[in-house]
């Protein structure tokens, strides 16, 4: 099993990748010149060359790139190869070192080979490695993926050989842009000094003005001689020409300085950050430079982070500088389609190029309209007809609350002086803006905040957990009087079969409890403006998995009980999709929506529809902030009047910014497409489909997780350190035992987090680890919607191993626990 | 004077621009084939051809493109031209129709010529226009700007002719990406069916999978014959081949459908929006489809919007479908570097490609670090050392308030039960999230919002206005007792010379008023946690221009009077940059900061530094939401403790998202560069520099506006309808007389807005208008930091004309007034 690939960066080795603006632009000549000159200038160092993809048709080609080891600059006599190049689609020949592998390797295996070669080079004291690509930047590699996409994970700094021929200005700029938008750092542009077209003049100005990138030009090389020997001699002379060497020295000097600047910047960034950044949700007295993760780039599910130096000795020059860190918090639950997904980049850039940002109040543009339609359709909720755009989940829930409160106040004819609250669940979290905070019950995370004032009532609820291998609805001691002691189920599917459970009367105890609670509140004169729930999982509240039957029952009771909230002039029906009843029902789907739990909307698990729903985070696949608050027409209409001040007076400057809308449109459609194509079939097949002993087709309900059911059940059986575990969609949560008691003040999960953070050395692929966040005694690991089966397997192994290790020793005592 | 250019879209005319993946890829052959086939298929229509930039070296070249009028498909016999192509940097020949213009025209003049030609074509019943570009997508046009950038304002849908040669896969994809990231819609990719390389196979799959764009391939044309006559005959036969015509028919069919789909989408979008969008800050009972602006794209300072159909008759087929709409609200005050600025697009795409979004709590990445350092340095405020990232101005001010309140509470040893307020100015606005709303005094815009509770005290203040040609500090009746009746100054510079005014004792009446107000509040037992100001201009509060001396005095009094706020254990000094004194001073620079008023920070006008400052909107040049709250080290330290719950518990999922940080870094550096380069010298020279009669070098103070001083003074002399006007930086505000009284319920500005909205026909450049927002009786027009002198002149003329017209008739009566 291949471990994830760390980017190419060593202190000992300056690695540069050479891309060409086109085929036949002189990549090999430039690379040869640079390699030869490097060898002259850094006499004691080794200079290496790698051409991972060769496009030559036969023996001769491979021979010419007969690699390297102790003969770094051997055979660079001419550029014969260019004449042998063939198309990449019809002829996918390739080589690494002298080995020709067949069949065509996977991209991962291919890149691992490249990295392995670089690792060998890095082990040999100081040196250089020049990696020459084949053809143009987008010429396909072995698997058919274009090289600009293929090499992203290696992310070596780059030289671009420009095109000095007719049309070459265009080719060079376009090739550069293709690299740039994939996050490559092009450090220098090189091209021949053709005096007919003088592209170098134009390009030198262009790249300096626009990017501050230097362009170096080299005299045109001699015409090819038909005699190989004479040709080699002529090239030899060319390479040794004073002007050629001078250009090469200048370029190499720049690359040398850039390499050391890059390392200094990486080494110093955490210290600078600890001096000048004020971190969100972080007690900075507990976070020094050593605790700050320096991220160089990110790709797929992995960050590339500055690897910690080995304890006790100075940073070793040949140790990899970067390691792959699995983003197990999905960057605060935002990631869905992988970091730096080229499709999302192109979507963002298209919208930026077409609109930038444009005014949205009383205006409309295509991506905002298309996204609104896509979301309304995808929700399959007959109640929803309107989309309100804002910037993030917190502001989007504030919008939802403004909608709900107004609707309830008007319906029940309350004055503006009435104090209205939110009905919710204990541990609810809706964001950190003050209005969103006020929707959460008082607790240690808001009680010290000066303007916080919890406005509402929050019910207790039964939860779902796999304990000792058994899926059960768990009831806290305080609720045992109402709900009994909980119950075990054969499978998670059975717990989600809320209709069957309802048919068997399981919901009645919930109904009684909820109704009596509401009656008590009514008797106390409490007034409510909305029921607000995070469907299925309360994320920041500690990854609590709520019994879906409880939430379903809560919604139903509220809708059937308008009399418990106020006196309306018109009767309403709980089932009428055209009118809200009881209270406006708000689902905060910011964390759980849009395939996080495996479905477009988690409301489909409950079989009840909200009147208002809030969507963010995964909405943009994990790229930029955007939020949508969806609402019903009947709530929308309550804001209509001839008076401007009756409107929903909420707006953000960047409301419905086109980049966000376009990226969200692309993301949502991509995830819908994945569902249609069965992209998660492999995960669904791993123990989740159907109840035990029954064929899958007999089940209406399908719940599943990226994480294998067997893993969850195995984890839950580690009764030494584990209370229980659950997995749903891409989320895996492990509730750990903690002698100091669970909750936010707990430290139980920190030891496990540390062990995951230590990770593995990873051999030639470079070190890797897991960057996770904990919530009190809960450690969670979140996959993206793109995580592969192989990644999951690897992570599962590390998890089991780390927990077992932890069970054998005491957990570390640290006093701070991040919330998310 | 050229009027702004409307994009190319007519109902009668299908315009397609043909770009090439490289030079010599067959653009002319494809275009010829399409034009010939179109003529066969749509016999009654006219088919036009335009090659705005020709790269031919002599007579022959121009002759071959001897344009068109009634002979649209004449002379398309061969592709001789290709052999005559030359480099674009050394040979900038070009032609439009048969005219060769010299000297090289400006980009604007050049595009206007192109549009004029298309306008002629559109006037001739239904038809087609194919516009062929020269060379590759980034081959330079006449002025040296590359064609992909040059043609953005025309934004015709596009055909890309791919490269079928060796390396052509790469060339085609890169060229496509260069178009895509500039917002072009590439509707079809065309290339030759070369059977050696088979690029068409790879590309067909690639474009279908990634973009859903069809790729059509055409048999390779005959080799060129040396005899022109035989060559022409051979090509004639080629064009008439069944397979060639079939391909052309398919492509044309697609283009035809796309054109009509695009029109339908534009025509129906406002209706759809009125059914499904819930607009921010908008009373939708007053906004029907006709009031909704449909934006097709945006470039520079202009939207391209669906032009209203002429009243009374059906939409005329030859009328331009789009018009240029000057974005006079700068899209809710966000725009600085123009819509769809390619530099910002590339910055966004680079960050997307390098990181996507990555976790920020306890992590750091290069753009976040570099932006933090750039802002801290740019502010030149010795008090600031920390940067907290959030999503928008509203959340950023909430963060600032959380910082301020905590610092004050700990300093003055108040319990969490103490009700703390904000000290501010009347009409203050800090955003629409509930915490930000609570920082504003009660008024018609928040009094109906259920959870709103104004928390603070808001002082009245004197304002600055040019009235009847005279710059003066204006005092409202209620303040006359305290401040007298105001005062006139020779120039705006004199008003801003706060040190001189202070030296002459002008501030004493302010000091007395502020001190006595604070003493009264203290006597009432009121407690405050921060002084929070929008420096210089209260935007949403009605474009009120506050006397800078008043704000300066307010800050100074607060800092010198800790005894009026609480009892601190340690004495503090008002002038010590290492410690806040009295109250933490927060400057909300969201609207006025980052060059909006001509300077990096408006605090430099006041000569006092805040302890906390908030920056958004222009921060990203107008592309994506991002906010920074800058704070002093001494406030930061008040959150340090061993206890996690003492931290600033605020965080956003997309905190410091790399796209936002990278774009902001690019924007801020670009604006700093403009300042250094003197990019606004032209504006500063127009009456703003120095006091009258005194040489500029004698003035420490330099205030200026993009809008000429003469315009402001002229406007202020229109005493028929105008109370007064002011301009500063890019903002021009006109306070209008309104018999119904001023303020938010006013309608005075609506008539003027309507007249600006009607705009002008613009002739061959297409219609243009001004899209403005009003604030009660105030109409404002905001330039970007890129607006040209010519644009300002044009807009100034339209403004004067529209106001004069308004003075001659009654203003319309509409009951709703947008806030921003």
TrEMBL record, chains A, B:
Q: Which GO terms describe its biological process?
A: biotin biosynthetic process
GO MF, one annotated term: dethiobiotin synthase activity
Organism from which the protein derives:
Epichloe festucae (strain Fl1)
Q: Which PANTHER family match?
A: ADENOSYLMETHIONINE-8-AMINO-7-OXONONANOATE AMINOTRANSFERASE
Keyword Transferase assigned:
yes
Q: Which residues does UniProt assign to the signal peptide?
A: 1-20
Q: List UniProt keywords, sorted A-Z.
A: Aminotransferase, Signal, Transferase
The main location is: mitochondrion
Q: Name one Pfam family in it.
A: Aminotran_3
Cellular compartments annotated: Mitochondrion
* InterPro entries per record: Aminotrans_3, Aminotrans_3_PPA_site, P-loop_NTPase, PyrdxlP-dep_Trfase, PyrdxlP-dep_Trfase_major
What CDD domains would the database entry show? DTBS
Know the name of this protein? Uncharacterized protein
Q: Which GO terms describe its cellular component?
A: mitochondrion
């Amino acid at each position: 099993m291949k471990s994830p690939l760390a980017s190419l960066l060593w202190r000992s080795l300056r690695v540069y990748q050479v891309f060409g603006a086109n085929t036949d632009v002189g990549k090999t000549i430039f690379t040869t010149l640079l390699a030869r000159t490097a060898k002259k200038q850094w006499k004691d160092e080794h200079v290496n060359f790698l051409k991972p993809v060769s496009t030559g048709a036969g023996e001769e080609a491979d021979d010419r790139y007969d690699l390297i080891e102790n003969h770094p600059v051997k055979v660079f006599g001419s550029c014969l190869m260019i004449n042998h190049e063939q198309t990449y689609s019809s002829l996918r020949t390739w080589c690494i070192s002298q080995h020709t592998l067949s069949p065509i390797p996977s991209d991962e295996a291919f890149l691992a080979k490249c990295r392995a070669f670089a690792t060998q080079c890095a082990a040999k004291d100081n040196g250089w490695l020049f990696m020459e690509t084949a053809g143009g930047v987008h010429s396909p590699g072995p698997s058919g993926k274009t090289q600009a996409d293929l090499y992203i994970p290696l992310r070596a700094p780059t030289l671009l050989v420009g095109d000095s021929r007719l049309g070459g200005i265009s080719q060079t700029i376009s090739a550069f842009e293709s690299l740039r938008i994939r996050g490559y750092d092009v450090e220098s542009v090189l091209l021949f000094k053709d005096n007919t077209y003088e592209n170098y003049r134009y390009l030198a100005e262009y790249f300096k003005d626009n990017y501050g990138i230097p362009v170096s030009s080299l005299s045109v090389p001699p015409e090819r001689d038909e005699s190989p020997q004479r040709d080699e001699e002529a090239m030899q002379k060319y390479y040794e020409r004073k002007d050629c060497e001078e250009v090469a020295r200048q370029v190499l000097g720049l690359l040398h300085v850039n390499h050391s600047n890059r390392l200094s910047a990486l080494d110093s960034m955490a210290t600078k950050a600890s001096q000048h950044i004020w971190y969100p949700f972080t007690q900075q007295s507990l976070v020094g430079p050593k605790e700050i993760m320096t991220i160089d780039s990110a790709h797929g599910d992995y960050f590339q982070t500055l690897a910690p130096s080995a304890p006790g000795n100075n940073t070793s020059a040949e140790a990899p500088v970067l390691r792959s860190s699995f983003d197990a918090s999905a960057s605060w639950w935002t990631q869905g389609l992988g970091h730096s997904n080229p499709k999302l980049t192109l979507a963002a850039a298209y919208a930026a190029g077409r609109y930038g940002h444009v005014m949205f109040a009383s205006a409309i543009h295509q991506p905002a309209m298309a996204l609104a339609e896509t979301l309304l359709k995808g929700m399959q909720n007959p109640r929803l007809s309107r989309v309100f755009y804002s910037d993030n989940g917190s502001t989007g829930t504030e919008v939802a609350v403004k909608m709900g409160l107004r609707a309830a106040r008007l319906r029940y004819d309350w004055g503006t002086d009435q104090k209205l609250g939110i009905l919710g669940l204990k541990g609810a979290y809706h964001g950190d803006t003050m209005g969103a905070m006020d929707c959460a019950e008082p607790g240690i995370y808001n009680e010290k905040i000066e303007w916080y004032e919890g406005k509402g009532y929050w019910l207790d609820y039964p939860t779902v957990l796999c304990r000792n291998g058994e899926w059960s609805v768990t009831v806290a001691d305080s609720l045992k009087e109402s709900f009994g002691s909980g119950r075990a189920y054969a499978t998670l599917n059975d717990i989600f079969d809320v209709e069957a459970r309802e048919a068997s009367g399981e919901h009645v105890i919930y109904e009684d409890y909820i109704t009596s609670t509401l009656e008590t509140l009514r008797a106390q004169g409490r007034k409510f403006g909305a029921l607000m729930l995070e469907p299925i999982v309360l994320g920041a509240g500690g990854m609590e998995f709520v019994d879906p039957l409880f939430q379903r029952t809560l919604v139903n009771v509220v809708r059937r009980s308008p009399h418990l909230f106020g006196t309306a002039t018109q009767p309403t029906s709980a089932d009428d999709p055209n009118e809200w009843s009881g209270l406006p029902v708000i689902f905060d789907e910011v964390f759980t929506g849009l395939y996080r739990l495996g479905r477009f909307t988690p409301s489909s698990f409950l079989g009840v529809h909200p009147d208002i729903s809030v969507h963010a985070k995964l909405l943009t696949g994990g790229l930029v902030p955007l939020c949508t608050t969806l609402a019903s027409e009947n709530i929308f209409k309550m804001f209509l009047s001839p008076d401007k001040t009756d409107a929903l007076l909420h707006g953000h400057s960047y409301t419905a910014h086109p980049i966000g809308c376009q990226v969200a449109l692309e993301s949502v459609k991509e995830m819908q497409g994945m569902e249609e194509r069965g992209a998660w079939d492999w995960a669904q097949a791993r123990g989740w489909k159907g109840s035990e002993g029954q064929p899958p087709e007999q089940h209406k309900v399908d719940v599943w997780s990226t994480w294998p059911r067997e893993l969850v059940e195995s984890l839950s059986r580690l009764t030494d350190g584990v209370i229980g575990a659950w997995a749903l969609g891409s989320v895996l949560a492990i509730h750990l035992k903690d002698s100091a008691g669970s909750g936010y003040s707990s430290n139980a999960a920190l030891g496990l987090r540390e062990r995951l953070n230590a990770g593995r050395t990873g051999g030639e692929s470079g070190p890797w680890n897991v960057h996770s966040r904990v919530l009190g005694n809960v450690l969670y690991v979140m996959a993206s919607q793109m995580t592969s089966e192989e990644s999951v397997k690897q992570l599962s192994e590390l998890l089991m191993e780390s927990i077992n290790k932890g069970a054998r020793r005491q957990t570390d005592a640290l006093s701070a626990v991040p919330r998310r």
